[in-house]
Amino acid sequence: MQDFLLILLIVFAGFILITLVRAAFYKPKKRDTTPLPPEKVDVDRYVRNLSDAIKIKTISSRDSDRVNWAEFEAFHALLEERYPLIHKTLEKELVSKASLMYRWKGKNPQLKPIALLAHQDVVPISAGTAKDWKYPPFDGTVAEGYIWGRGSLDMKNHLIAVMESIETLLEEGFEPERDVYLCFGHDEEIMLSDDSGALNMARLFKERGIELESVIDEGGAIIPAKIKGLLDINIAGVGIAEKGYADFEIAVTAKGGHSSQPPNHTALGEMAVIIQTIENHQFKAKLTPYLKELFRGVGRHMSYPGRIVTCNLSLLWPVVKAIMKRIPAAASMIRNTTAVTMASGSPAPNVLPQTAKINVNFRIMPGSSIKDVEKHLRKIIKNKNVTIRLVEGKEPSAISPTDSETFKVIEDICYRMNEKNLVAPYLVMGGTDACRYEDVAKNIYRYSPFVFGTELLLTTHGTNERLPIDSVEDAVAFFKRYVRSLAGKESK
Ligand SMILES: [Zn+2]
């Protein structure tokens, strides 16, 4: 017995020793961090133009009659006035009701074009919250180092940055080798529209036989991650895929009648059991390869004490997964999520329900499908009186590669702009226009090159949405470098 304990002790001591040595060598991967030459960026012009863009209420709605199309016309006029060189040099096409497609013709027709995407529309202000804004949501106020207002993060900031970068490249006399498209949808915020501006622009590419080299759209941003003494980096999240979406209506039928003579379980009672079953049968969680890569990347950037733990991440995956499953925001990254969102029963207090209905909202991982969700529901719900119906849905996107020319360009610019940046491919939880282009592009990336903390991220679609002015210069410079790298002389 004593021998056994001794062996155990030696093995343990050996493990600790190996870990201590491994941690010393567990360092960030070698990258080229040579600073890039500075870029000319007119920050004042950007601020003025974004501020004026916010003043135009380009609010989209599912009900086309409720959209004020004059606002979109005003937005187009603003772009035309503020970006004269773009409007002189690029071909502009109006697609669908109000989407804009610009083509900057390249010199070499053999090369596949690239596309820079953005959406012009914004979400409305939730009823009763306008008074909570520090500055009115459609005034485009510039104060306290921020540009305030709806769309300042989602995503007129990005659209204006793209326009600024192209206008400045034109001023500098840049001529692209390949075609560069700018595609600005007008109805991204209306989920699941099967006639959206983005879809119609993608269809145009298809009809014209154009395959795109790559697409870049909104998605991740650069988020500082700081833990005192342990970690001090910026995580540049590049979305390589997005989750799917499905609403299922589940209904239970029963006899109904007067509530004075009820059965043991009414339709609602039966539904309660179904809800419990659904919530108790969550989908299986899986740590995706890109998530593991992110953890490893972050782990390598930690100070020595942190690396003692993170250099053994492979051993810790089951623990990491178990912890993530307990935190809703983390769990959503590793499995299909299930949310029972709506319920209805009888129309009156003293009437037994003849039907009880719920809506269950699912967000689906790439690799899974709406069919898989339906199968899962039919397997776990064992009730003869139930009907399950798909209300609406959108399949998860494909996963874009991380070894494409475009991804490498994004990485290169990020690392050379700030050596604290860590580029992390990740899964986008919400929807973007980007996935509409899957038929015409394999390399689709969702990345907005602005630096801001998570507290600002939460103002997207919320109150006090605002963009830090000090994030502007790098963002515009990013797009200039992006276009120059992909469409410049060295383009392959
Ligand atoms: Zn958006």
Tell me about this structure.
The structure is a single chain. This protein is an alpha+beta fold. It has helices at residues 2-25, 43-55, 69-82, 84-89, 156-171, 197-207, 267-280, 289-300, 304-310, 313-326, 328-331, 370-380, 405-417, 454-457, 472-487, and strands at 91-95, 99-104, 114-119, 142-143, 146-148, 180-185, 214-227, 231-242, 244-253, 257-258, 337-344, 351-352, 355-364, 386-394, 421-428, 444-451, 466-468. The chain folds into 2 domains: 43-240 and 398-487, Zn peptidases (Aminopeptidase); 243-394, Alpha-Beta Plaits (2-Layer Sandwich), CATH 3.30.70. The strands form 4 sheets. Strands 1, 2, 3, 6, 7, 8, 15 and 16 form an 8-stranded mixed β-sheet that branches. Helix 1 (2-25) crosses helix 9 (304-310) and helix 2 (43-55) packs across helix 5. Zinc ion is lined by residues 119, 154-155, 188, 218.
Mind telling me the CATH superfamily name of the largest domain? Zn peptidases
Q: Please, what is the average pLDDT?
A: 94
* Bound small molecules, deduplicated: zinc ion
Q: Using only CA atoms, what is the Rg?
A: 26 Å
Summarize the structure.
The protein is α+β, with helices and mostly antiparallel strands. The chain contains 15 helices and 17 strands.
SSE arrangement:
Blueprint: H1 2-25, H2 43-55, H3 69-82, H4 84-89, E1 91-95, E2 99-104, E3 114-119, E4 142-143, E5 146-148, H5 156-171, E6 180-185, H6 197-207, E7 214-227, E8 231-242, E9 244-253, E10 257-258, H7 267-280, H8 289-300, H9 304-310, H10 313-326, H11 328-331, E11 337-344, E12 351-352, E13 355-364, H12 370-380, E14 386-394, H13 405-417, E15 421-428, E16 444-451, H14 454-457, E17 466-468, H15 472-487
Helix pairs in contact: 1-9, 2-5, 5-15, 8-9, 13-15
This protein binds zinc ion.
